[in-house]
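We store chain and fold; example below:
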Amino acid sequence: MDLDVFMTAHRAEWDRLDQLLGRGRRLTGAETDELVELYQRTAAHLSLIQTSAPDPHLTARLTQLVARARATVTGTRRASWRDAIRFLTQGFPAAVYRSRHWWVPTAVLSILLASLIGWWIAAHPEVQSAIAAPEHLREMTRPGGEYESYYSSHPATSFAAQVWTNNAQAAAMCLVLGAFLCLPVLWILFLNMLNVGIGLGLMASAGRLDTFLGLLLPHGLLELTAVFVAAGTGLRLGWTVVDPGPRSRRSALAEQGRAAVGMAIGLAVVLLVSGVIEGFVTPSGLPTWARIAIGIAAEAGFLLYVYVLGGRAARAGETGDVEAADRSAELPTAA
């Protein structure tokens, strides 16, 4: 496509659209019809330029024109409680459900990796010596040592807030960095499993694995599930870069990216719950069985939420993306 010829042929239409959008008064019926028609034409022109002869300056101008025209034609919609309710009951659980083929295998493989690391450390004293000096290892694993005192080292409220912030940041990084061909996500996931594996191995070598699991499981079941969901979704986003399917790579990434941003918000809520459990339940004086039961109940509630509400919404066509009215207009892509 000759870009100069194309611009000469359609510049008058773009200028007229800009003029109509700049009118301070209410448009007449004929002017409104003209604006809608010019908006549709300009959107088509923008799509054609992006695919055939991308020009940064012209693309920026037409993108701005199309966005202004779309806001004028469709009106500005404000977020409402209806949007929040729809997100929590349909969008977020459906997005988690639809990505289950990514995060469930991620969870299984990650748990196996952490268990393998834990066994390796527990079975090899030389590996333990490489981690820390014997005196430090005893201080970490003894009754009332660092592994146990960690959960009560700060006031419950501030500790829960700190844990929630750290975990939410890790989940968001998994979701956002997935677009970089999955590699940052795999590294973040490995570091998390390494930390869990070290704790398993050291406490098992001291004969106190039951104590470690009693401290980890109440909050760890839900917390690690949220991390696995974030990692699996990040890996899915990264794979979209490699294989976007029948859509254009830009369209596929846009859809998956919007869903990932929504999942970051939803997972922040999930991690808030696990942070509250870690801050108030894990270090509490409740019997171990009671603390673990609370963790299992929270995990079961989340899985039911995803597989019942999310499964129903996904089968009804929900994808976790924003509503169609809030997406950018796109032209069909040829097969």
Remarks:
- The chain is about 80% helix and 0% strand.
- The CA atoms of residues 51 and 155 lie 56 Å apart.
